[in-house]
Write the structure tokens for this entry.
Amino acid sequence: MEFPQQQKPAGEGIIYPPGVKEITDKISNDEMVKRLKMVVKTYMDMDQDSEEEKQQYLGLALHLASEFFLRNPNKDVRLLVACCLADIFRIYAPEAPYTSHDKLKDIFLFITRQLKGLEDTKSPQFNRYFYLLENLAWVKSYNICFELEDCNEIFIQLFKTLFSVINNSHNHKVQMHMLDLMSSIIMEGDGVTQELLDTILINLIPAHKNLNKQAYDLAKTLLKRTVQTIETCIANFFNQVLVMGKSSVSDLSEHVFDLIQELFAIDPMLLTSVMPQLEFKLKSNDGEERLAVVRLLAKLFGAKDSELASQNRPLWQCFLGRFNDIHVPVRLECVKFASHCLMNHPDLAKDLTEYLKVRSHDPEEAIRHDVIVTIINAGKKDLNLVNDQLLGFVRERTLDKRWRVRKEAMMGLAQLYKKYCLHHEAGKESAQKISWIKDKLLHIYYQNSIDDKLLVEKIFAQYMVPHNLDTEEKMKCLYYLYACLDTNAVKALNEMWKCQNMLRGLVKELLDLHKLPVSEANNTAMFGKLMSIAKNLPDAGKAQDFMKKFNQVLGEDEKLRVQLEMLISPTCSCKQAEICVREITRKLTFPKQPTNPFLEMVKFLLERIAPVHIDSEAISALVKLLNKSIEGTADDDEEGVTPDTAIRSGLELLKVLSFTHPTAFHSAETYESLLQCLKMEDDKVAEAAIQIFRNTGQKIETELQQIRSTLIPILHQKAKRGTPHQAKQAVHCIHAIFNNKEVQLAQIFEPLSRSLNADVPEQLITPLVSLGHISMLAPDQFASPMKSIVANFIVKDLLMNDRSVGNKNGKLWTTDEEVSPEVLAKVQAIKLLVRWLLGMKNNQSKSANSTLRLLSAMLVSEGDLTEQKKISKSDMSRLRLAAGGAIMKLAQEPCYHEIITPEQFQLCGLVINDECYQVRQIFAQKLHLALVKLLLPLEYLAVFALCAKDPVKERRAHARQCLLKNISVRREYIKQNPLAQEKLVSLLPEYVVPYMIHLLAHDPDFTKPHEYEQLKDIKECLWFMLEVLMTKNENNSHAFLRKMVENIKQTKDAQCPDDAKANEKLYIVCDVALFVIANKSTACHLDCPKEPVLPSKFFLIQDKDFKNDKEYLTAEMRQMLLTGKPKPAPVLGAVNKPLTVPGRRIFTKTTTASDTTSNTSTNSSPLSSTINKNSNSSSTIESSESRAQENNENPVIKAEEVKKVEPSQKAAPDAGTEASPVKRRGRPPKSAAAAPVAADKEGGAAPVGGGTSRGRKRAADPNSNPSAESINIKMSKQQQQNDEGTKRQIDLQR
């Protein structure tokens, strides 16, 4: 590089140190360096007190600042000159020998440039560079520049140089001298310019920070040291950028949020004046800007040692407000922040809880998902960081509508359970805090989604009872888990094993089909199995395709079939199962693909059918645990269960597993332990043990003679003198496992049949149970001797006699313990009759006709067959329930269904409207279970239509769910079974309508067919069924329904064809049905090519000449059914309790506004929206003049208040024809309704002590005005609901 010629200094004017010759451009560089080193040495040795030397070498000092040296191309020369100049500033301080401002600027820029040499610590000259830095820092030489106008340029250059040269090879001294040099400039100057501030702050930006960590540390330390001085400058910078929006003031404007984060981490004092500006930015109209501020503040508030939230509460509250921001990314960022905040600042959990609650219901799936992640992550770090409320939010989300959210919630809870309950990582207290998780996770198995079920199975196998544990540890885990589960969780777990076992059965049947020759029938059967298997896998559509592919592979690969057969074999061990799954997966892995959905689907199947928990070894381990509990040497108390609970639940667990894994029980050791259980005093334990023998003991007789010889006398004893349940299981056990069952059963039958004594009913119950089951299991041997027992003892001696007087406490239901022994014996006698008939399966002796007449008489007489008034109300309820259930049980056998008359069917169906809540409840459950298994004929589905009149909302809702389930089961069955097309009349749900119409036409309440109130009840019952049937118009079903009802109008009632009034009622019900269908569907008037088939048992087809085109509903009545009565109805109140009237059951109900609005799916109207408007505006309250009183949870009416109704003629048990007229139990005509009584809250669980929820709702006196107070309460309640709804909405503030 060429430099301009320097003017030669006058040699005589410059004095050099001794031994130093003149330094000019005439000498070589080496010589110049040599001479300069001597000069440097001289200046180094001088101090400020050497006045003479200072004056002597003044000329040399001026000479060294000449352009010749400042622009010398040789770096060694420049370094030595810089060292000299630094010493000159030290020696001549505080006044520099240079007076020209320009010269001073050149000198300091020159020195600054030399400091770049600090970068290379391995350079031979590094020590001189260090000396230069040390000298400058110690003397604070740069402070001279404050006098210069453009000193900022020098400082900027200096700061840039120091930040660029600092590196990890520098020691602490170098850093300290740099800090001293820079901090003196900042602290002693008049202020820091923006450009100079930028040179410091730029090192904090992430990009620079990652490039030079040492420069970041240097800037960080410098800011800490100068915080008091530089804070004002920083505040000014952020004020201009954040508040005034002047982004041009600095190149760092776009990095303000990164800078704030770094500055806060360095020292919050640096941002004292900046934080209020952020509060302003949080309320910006720009969503992206709010998002940036939220991201920043999330880091500041969430930092480990941050005290910002406590120091700046307004900013914290403002930040929390962003949880309700209208901008989705802002809400999402807030939720993500909450995780760090909970972990680093547990004290802020209370503030966050309320906001996370709102966000757990956010409309955005991603936000709900992240709320769960936030809470679970904090909980996994320390369970104490999350309170019960936060865990409750995760619990709620296990039922989220989105699978991704549900999955995250379930997996999160499972991880917490495994960590704190299984591994006890935080002690018993933490385990107790989340003990509910195990139950909640298993409850999810009740959900309809197959994805939920599969995930519960996976969670159970990996987190609740990890399959990779040793067998003993695994079974101990299962043993105590089962003992601690609640009832519903136990049912769910049992259902899980049942479903897996069912799926194993389907796969086995599929493999069996592969062994048969190829044929069309075989292919059809195989397709059916594949469809059934696919229904048990996620994404049914894809599952079907993949199962077809898997079936094809099975057909081609015999080794694969062998592995699969081994996997589902009853003898497959858990270890073998793992090997089989691995082998099958390996065979299907080729060709390798990044994602193989086919393989994933097969894995789902294998996971469900593989026995990962239970095998022979596992059962042995469970039995050993049970033995320890019996002996009192187990860890029951440590595990939080009592020994009795452990024994009982352990036996229940083994009982369930005996259904799904019977082969695993076959060992002498297991059976010996079960024999010990049989001898225990606990009835439940002995019962479970007998059932396990029944399920698993098929090989006992041939292979375990010692067990057999011990077991037989015990079973005989239980069948004769055990509890009823033990007796039943003992009889079935003998029948199931012994070859000489006839001999064994005869040894029980004969002594029991001889010892029957009605005078000692306490000793009758078990013998009756045993005799009934024996006659059902071995009808050929015992049907005949049983006939005389039935005729002479059961009917005449037991059922037709009342030996004791019941408790007259007025209760409609009592606990099992309070039921009199005589009534319990009668109930078992009724069941014996049914079992005897079910065993015979024929009606050759006409025994079934007699039995049905007896049961009908029992229902007609309301349970008091002898009419001697000795039986209590609660005992009568038990007998009505037993009689109704018995008819329903007999109807499941085709030969008996044929002989059940319409009258008997109606009597049975009306039990669902019984005055006793428990009778209605239990009967409905029995009815549903039989229908859903397709055991009962379709006509019994019509009985659920009567539930529309039930006063308890829960019962109506349950009935509706039963209808939905039954209809879906029947539709699915028709789809899956091609042969079902031939039996559509008995399967197609639409064919329930004729039975329903006939049943409603014979409703005892339907006495005045032209009255609005009665027609309204009929309409409600019709709609209760039709609403579910008409959800979809599949295959033009609406038109089919219309045509079916029209066809019924062209028939006569087969029950009483010549009764004009009965036929008229039938036609009126048809017209109401047509009215409802027409108002619901516009497609019902289309043509229906299919001709409906009507049951001849109920409808008499007429000649073609017969034509019934009469309209039975007037226009006025149609309008009233559509919109209600013209005048407003009084306000409805709560459910009335029933009034007891001799010979009748009061059962009145009127739809309330709350029913109409909150339970529309259960009782919604098919008609126009006007109905809802009217029903919403009209409610009824209980009459304040009600004089009925409450006694022992049941209403009692004073004799003078109610006119007694004389009981009508009752049918005799042996009558050849039905009693006429049939008395209606459950609800009399409305004219017979007595004064209303105070009612319990609708929908509450019925207390065991009596039917407080029985009866029908009744409106208040139409002439009485609803009180203003009631209306106000109603309005305020609606207002409150509106307010709550508003609170749930997202805060749209910006």
